[in-house]
Amino acid sequence: MTPSPQFIGRSMFDLDTYSPEEIMYILEAAKGMKEINLREYKKIPTLRGKTVCTLFIENSTRTRMSFELAANRLSADVVSFQASISALQKGESLQDTVYTLDAMGIDLYCIRHGSPGSPQLVNKYSHKPVINGGDGRHAHPTQALLDIYSIWEKLGDLKGLKITIVGDILNSRVVRSNLIGMQKLGAKVTVCGPKTLMPGNMESVYGCRVEYDLARALHDADVVMGLRMQLERMSEGLFPSLEEYSKHYVLSKNTLKHAKKNALIMHPGPMNRGIEILPEIADGSHSIIVEQVANGVAIRMALMFLIMGGKA
Fold first, then answer.
1. Which domains does the chain have, with CATH numbers?
2. Residue 208 and which of 50, 81, 186, 283 are 20 to 30 A apart at CA?
């Protein structure tokens, strides 16, 4: 596998600056990485001598671990930065933190931060490529790529597929990146949730269909994705209770009867079982939620390989 020149040294802030052809190139690269992850011996020397920093200013478990595992499997050295035990607690700025890390010879930053635009700032201060692991409500491109890969792996070409995303649309960075990537590949995407959790400009900005009624949103869907209720980002009391939300929007056998019989069931995690999705659906035969996690490692391996010009 030889990396395409347009990826080397390039940051991934979101999918809006990537063409459909480039997205497909990433998916193909991830397919090769997934094959490596299925081997008994999963490590390859392609990024030996490179150093990756996981700069996580916002709490994370699966995304941080996925990035670090991806780097380790490519034989890169990993510097794991966690804000809770860093000099940021002593008042150090993000700018000075990046200057300090850069002096240690970081080749690639993978960042999660609560403020939109933080990945661009890290790129500005370091002059090194940055992969956005989630910035506030803005974007989460690697999650979108692993979601798209998971669909592509099961159903092939996304063109014409009906994908319904249900839940907290207002606070979700995942849905924004998915809308960009899925629609670039020709999918027809519907977003559904309470009016209080739905931005007013979704149709005009993203070109998607907006529904507030779950049955209409799920009609004839090929793929159904639930979103987590992001209580940590809510302070306005946008719905009466989790029970009230679940009453109208939970993914269950009853609600999913409106989708296609074999519709794929997805969730970016972590799940609030019984609120967004019932266990019978999350653990059912059509669920690919666990596969999404595995595919995340492959996608992040592919991006690191392409951006840092790894040797096959």
1. 5-139+293-307 (3.40.50.1370), 141-289 (3.40.50.1370)
2. 283
